[in-house]
Every structure is written in structure tokens, then in C-alpha cells.
Amino acid sequence: MDATFEERIRAAYAAFVAGDLDATLAHISPEIVFINPEYAVDGGTATGLPALRGALDRLHENFLELSIEIGEILEAPGAVVVTSRWRGEGRVSGAPIDQMLTHVFDCTGGRVVKWRWFRSQAEGREAAGL
Length: 130
Prior knowledge:
By secondary structure, the protein is an alpha+beta fold. The protein has helices at 3-18, 21-24, 49-62, 121-127, and strands at 28-36, 44-47, 63-76, 79-90, 96-108, 111-118. The chain has one domain (3-127): Roll (Nuclear Transport Factor 2, Chain: A).
């Protein structure tokens, strides 16, 4: 994987944690397809940058002290698979979260055109064709 591309991925996650959604979404296609699995609170598909921005805003609204630790970044055919550990606290419930998530970013021309996430690395790898 190109070192610059990996740096962009890490920078986007860091920007998200910092609340800088403009930087987070800098390499996302305006026609992005964001797919939440059926087991997600907001399961289903959202299309377009405004819909994705809304979903990311809701994450910040629902959690305090959110941190993300990148674990593994893998290349797949036409995609990148990122495994990360998310920690935080529910804003209303106060319940702690400590969860591993896997994101699959399908890319075309250096931009993310589809973003899928999964609770397990195995699900993400399978979805990416690994």
C-alpha cells in the first residue's frame, strides 16, 4: 500500500475524532454509498455526502470521549479494509463502549465511493473479497 494513502486514512480517522468532518470527508465521493449492517442502530443504506455527514454528526452527538485506535489496514481488490478499536461513553446513558469495528472502503480514482462497516474483521474481509 502506498504510504501516502495510508497516511490519508490515518489522518481521516484522526480528523473524525477531533470533530473535523470537512477533513474526514476530503477524499469521499459526493455520491458516496454508506452501508450500515442490519444489526446497526441505523441499519440500511444512505447515499450522498450530506447523508454520510449526518450519520457522522450523530456519532459525535451520541458519544463522549470518542477515541479510535487503528489496528490493521489491508489492501483488497478495489478496496481498503481498516480494523479499528473504538472507545468512548454514551452521552445519555454513560455506558462505556469498547468495540472493534472493520470498515471497508471501496475506492475509485483515489476517492471512497462505498463505505461499509462490520463488527468483525472476518465479515469485513469477506465483504472485501479477502
